[in-house]
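Structure tokens please, single chain.
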Amino acid sequence: MKRLTQISRILVGALFIFSGFVKLVDPIGSQYKFQEYFSEGVLNMEFLVPYALLFAIFLIIAEILLGVMILIGYKPKFTVWSLLIITLIFLFLTWYSAYYNKVTDCGCFGDAIKLTPWETFYKNIILIVLIFILLIKVEFIKPIFKGKIPKVITFLSLAVFLYIVQHVLTHLPIIDFRAYAIGKNISAGMEYPEDGSIPPVHDFMLEDSQNDLAPELLAKEKVMLVIVYNLDKSDVTGFPKIIAAANKAIKKGYTVYGVSASFTDDLILAKEKHKLPFEFLFCDETTLKTMIRANPGVIILNKGTVVQKKNWIDVEEIKL
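Here you go.
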């Protein structure tokens, strides 16, 4: 039983650390997922939507930190009970999603690994069995270091995780698992896989008042897209830097467009108010949120391949 407990400890700890890490590098993705869960069509708890990012950050850090704590053996009783509670929460959400077909991707592994709700539900069942083993034989979970070292490791880990969250929220995800990551070709991502499943890039259109300009723009070598997925939620303090970068790009022969899901009239007013040197195209909001975790943000394309991505705060670093 002691060996089984140690195996369960390693498996649970490793899974929680991996699951937490792939979300830690992109907490905004988890924010969007919680907004989906809180929406009227799912849990109908829309009053929690404004707090989705806080929920995401808390659960991500709790998840990865508990994984560290169980591996090093810091406060085993507290850690195991916390692991059980958080897994029961995940179990309910995945069961609800699977049974009622509400959320097709739970986001348990961020964008790194896609699982169906039922696959995630059964994964959580196995996880709970392992945690119950730890709960029954918690006396076998001993610290792997002596003295205060486990405590120091725990709090240092917490500090590192908080720093990573702050960094990625200010800039962009450290690791990009999405189909619009640097080096990915959007046109190639729109091709249907051999098994006929949905391609990684779908609902990608860049529409003006009459046509979809996506095919034309994806064929060009020098394209700058300024992503403002929702004008009302955009950080307008970033517009001066965006304007400077756009003007510089235009002088160097780039085709520059803004891309948004906001209403045309609002975009026209914003263009006049902020003296934006580019026209806006329309694209689906979910697609724009997937393309870049910034509002506004900038993407540079070369024949459909993403070569640079920057949050507005780092837009001066773009090399043209």
